[in-house]
Amino acid sequence: MVSSTTGFSSYFHFSQVDWASMWSATGETIWMTVFSLVLVAIIGILLGLLLFETTDSHSLWARLLHWLAAVFVNVFRSIPFIILIVLLLPITKNLVGTIIGPKAALPSLIISAAPFYARMVELAFHEIDHGVIEAAESMGATNTQIIFKVLLPESSPALVSGITVTGISLIGYTAMAGVIGAGGLGNLAYLDGFQASNNTITLVATIVILIIVFIFQTIGDLTVRRIDKRITR
Amino acid sequence: MIDIKGVSKVFKGKKQITAVEDVNLQINDGEIYGIVGYSGAGKSTLVRMFNGLETPTTGTVTINDTVMSDLHGKELREKRQKMGMIFQYFNLLWSRTVLQNVTFPLELTHVPKEERQAKAEKLIETVGLKGRENAYPSELSGGQQQRVAIARALANDPELLLSDEATSGLDPKTTDEVLELLLKINRELNITIVVITHEMHVIRKICDRMAVMDAGRVVEEGSVFDIFRHPQKEITRQFVSEEETPQLTDTNVVINELLKQVPTGKIVKLTFHGDQAKLPIISEMLRQFPEIDLNIVDGSIHQTQEGSIGTLYLQLLGNAQEIIDAQDYLHKMRVETEVIRGE
């Protein structure tokens, strides 16, 4: 079998693709993304809520808490992902028992994406008209009632579009994590594509990632459109 | 009853701002009380102290024997549930339907679902929005949104309704409709209403008593009728005159035009109060002083809660002595006469 490793035609040797490992890598990518996204959403909303509730507070404790949360968010949002993985290797080993495979990617994926989402959550809460919160207060709502009956439902379109954006960058992160052994399509493209000089595998892995991104974006957009009642359609 | 004693509010910041200064007011049960003032006069801050959204720096706000600043946490929330508030920008939850917006305060007080549904439906009917229960606020006009807000404010059977510039964002026709609704609520449910506004029209239309605020202080207070009839302070006069002669510029144009055409003749402004507005005073005057010719330049009648106030601009021509006697007659009939232009 004649096969070149350079030139345009090198992208189209589909017979060389091991489809079984392609689909299992796809499964790993989706699993890493969805699993970490669920935790990112929970941690991000809690962290965003903490940032929002402690903004402009008069209590010293609240100010300290706000400062701590803000420092945490800013630091972990600023560290480049590839460095964060390496930095967190010892902690990862303690937490999940291994530094190889999809599971090992989770701590660094979550720690890098949750602060990113927390900022979006905080922003979404700030965009709610303050008068609406005040109206709830004037009706005698408790803080918990305001969170669950005003803040979360009123910011839901922004929360969902934020999770869409975060999910898409998580897909990118999983690919990066794959290069240092986390599995998934990034791993496949790097090992079987780049290192084995098999451009077709790299191309197919790219297309599969693109399809996952498009599906994510579409689900996010449709959900936002369904829950956003601010504009009449 | 609402009793405001020596209330001041100072906002400390980079610059210290005294928003409300030594305000004393008493508002009786079942009345509609208006607080008028230009923006920044401190009226919104004052009304926010009624339901504890702000706390006074000094002084006390007592509502039905409860001192608001003594309340905290649960007690304050329970007291707030007995007060409704409506706002300039309605402050509805856009993610909820009309029905869900009205059930919102009932959810806060853990009213069972069936009960709050039934109650909300009844209130929606009261405010005239039957059939729009499942619409979202974004599908409603401003006036309809304010009606939803009113229904929401009434959900917990409040003893007091606070209205903070509730009609300022509405056009004149819608404003009148919302005011009619407030009047109806006051009469049918006997709820005390405190109205904050910068429009004298709102006060005249629905209020029994009123206060005028300027730079944080209450500068004038009393029954709407008395204040319209005899405004004491300059700022009150400004408010009253804005309202009394909404077409003032038109009138001046008409007067100037008339003076140009008929250089002779006296222009007088007559003000009628209450029952006088119903008497045929002018025709009686013409009968007594047949040498006078008169020309109506402009006129209007306003309805207030306590009666009507009428203004009439007349051009008087003819025998000078009779005109003077006629003015005396009007004076005797307790019609206020102001000479705009002598002969």
Describe this structure in words.
Chain B: It holds the Pfam family NIL. Chain B: InterPro entries: AAA+_ATPase, ABC_transporter-like_ATP-bd, ABC_transporter-like_CS, ACT-like_dom_sf, MetN_ABC, MetN_ABC_transporter-like, NIL_domain, P-loop_NTPase. Chain B: This is Methionine ABC transporter ATP-binding protein. The complex is a heterodimer of chains A (233) and B (343). In chain A, helix 2 packs across helix 4 and helix 7 runs antiparallel to helix 9. In chain A, 79% of the residues lie in helices and 0% in strands. Chain A has one domain: MetI-like (MetI-like fold), CATH 1.10.3720. Chain A is elongated, with a radius of gyration of 21 Å. In chain B, a hairpin with a 2-residue loop joins strand 9 and strand 10. With 343 residues, chain B is an alpha/beta fold. In chain B, helix 4 packs across helix 5. Helices cover 38% and strands 30% of the residues of chain B. Chain B is elongated, with a radius of gyration of 24 Å. In chain B, the strands form three sheets. Chain B has a six-stranded mixed beta sheet. In chain B, strands 2-1-4-5 form a four-stranded antiparallel beta sheet. A four-stranded antiparallel beta sheet of chain B has the order 12-13-11-14, with helices on both faces. Chain B contains twelve helices and 14 strands. Classes of the chains: A mainly alpha (233), B alpha/beta (343). Chains A and B meet through helix 5 and helix 6 of A and helix 2, strand 6 and helix 3 of B.
Summarize the structure.
By secondary structure, chain A is an all-alpha fold.
The outline of chain B comes out as elongated
| Separate helix tally of chain B | 12
Overall average residue pLDDT of chain B: 85
Backbone shape of chain A: elongated
Uncertain regions spanning at least 5 consecutive residues of chain B: none
Most residues in contact, chain pair and counts: A-B, 23 and 31 residues
CATH superfamily of the largest domain in chain B: P-loop containing nucleotide triphosphate hydrolases
Number of domains of chain B: 2
Main beta-sheet strand count, sense and barrel state of chain A: none
Q: Briefly note the CATH topology name of chain A.
A: MetI-like fold
The main sheet of chain B comes to: 6 strands, mixed
Compute the CA-based radius of gyration of chain A.
21 Å
Unreliable spans of chain A: none
Helix content, binned percent of chain B: 25-40%
Placed side by side, the strands forming the largest sheet of chain B appear as: 6-7-8-3-9-10
What is the number of helices of chain A?
A: 9
CATH topology of the largest domain in chain B: Rossmann fold
CATH architecture term of chain A: Orthogonal Bundle
CATH architecture of the largest domain in chain B: 3-Layer(aba) Sandwich
Distance between the termini of chain B: 54 Å
Protein name (chain B): Methionine ABC transporter ATP-binding protein
Family (chain B): Belongs to the ABC transporter superfamily.
Function (chain B): Part of the ABC transporter FtsEX involved in cellular division. Has ATPase activity. Essential for cell division and viability.
GO molecular function, one term (chain B): ATP binding
